[in-house]
Amino acid sequence: MIDILLSGCNGKMGRVITAAVAERDDCRIVAGIDKNTAQEAGFPVFESPEDVTVKADVIIDFSNPSAVLPLLGYACDHTIPAVIATTGLSDEQIGALKQAAERIPIFFSANMSLGVNLLLELSKMAARVLGPSFDIEIVEMHHNQKLDAPSGTALMLADGIAEEFDHPMRYEYDRHAKRCKRDRNEIGIHAVRGGTIVGEHQVLFAGHDELITLSHSARSKEIFATGSINAAIYLHGKPAGLYCMADLVEGK
Questions:
Q1: Does 176 participate in catalysis according to the annotation?
Q2: Catalytic residue among 142, 190, 201, 216
Q3: Any bridge partners for residue 27, and if so which?
Q4: ω into 150 cis (within 30 of 0)
Q5: Is-contact 185 167, C-beta < 8 A?
Q6: Is 78 helix (H, G, I), strand (E, B) or coil?
Q7: What is the reported pLDDT for 104?
Q8: 128-169 per-position pLDDT tens digit
Q9: Is 190 a catalytic residue?
Q10: Quick one: pLDDT at residue 138?
């Protein structure tokens, strides 16, 4: 039985993870961290990492970017592996995450869905096959409560695709003020916010007289919860290092 410390336990994703863990017999949540310290799920909830008094085997973080650095400090001080699933991290925070991975196992992915990570691999393959003769656009759609735009997943897709080219690719987020032709060396990224959309991502490869569209549609938050729990189970017992969904899928 693996004991989980859940950061952001009283948020929307935290509640979904709590419900998903309750259906499993290979792990349990022994404590949570949240500014809202209501104890509604039968485990103690602490306001900050330094207040935690319960021992855990692994941390799952679905909180807020502002909470990541203190959490990484706590994880390093107590040598606890951490699954960081919070999106919208700054370059400084990602740098701190990589530094922490030199001391403890860190699992980091902009999206915990297996399907989205398959979309990433298919998009990279398409970029290799189609080459620079196809224009690339990424469209992401999320609910109207999402704070960051574009989504971390859209940027993950763009980064993966850009790595397939032997020249720098520029990300274009807004064209309304531009009066010029599209640059071949750019990837367009567009964000839509509305209603209760869980998460939709499309990668468009537009060539001469043909359009190829790769897409993924998330129908519930449960797929992200399942991915983060599986990542926590996978991370337990691993040596220090930075791990991602590809490692989990390939069983490295």
A1: no
A2: 142
A3: 2
A4: yes
A5: yes
A6: helix
A7: 97
A8: 999 999 999 999 999 999 988 999 899 999 999 999 999 999
A9: no
A10: 98
- Contact assessment for residue 166 and residue 186, using Cβ atoms and an 8 Å cutoff: no
Residue 174's pLDDT is what?
79
With contact defined as beta carbons under 8 Å apart, do 185 and 171 qualify? Answer: no
Tokens of 248: 């989990």
- For 51-57, the CB contacts below 8 A with 24+ separation are 52/5, 54/5, 54/30, 55/3, 55/30, 56/3, 56/4, 56/5, 56/30, 56/31, 56/80, 57/2, 57/3, 57/4, 57/81, 57/236
**Catalytic: which of 146, 221, 236, 238?**
146
Contact (CB, 8 A) for 56 and 44: no
User: Please, is 149 exposed, middle or buried when counting C-beta atoms within 10 Å of its C-beta (0-12, 13-18, 19+)?
Assistant: middle
**What parts of the chain have a pLDDT lower than 50?**
none
Note the pLDDT of residue 221.
87
DSSP-assigned letter for residue 27: E
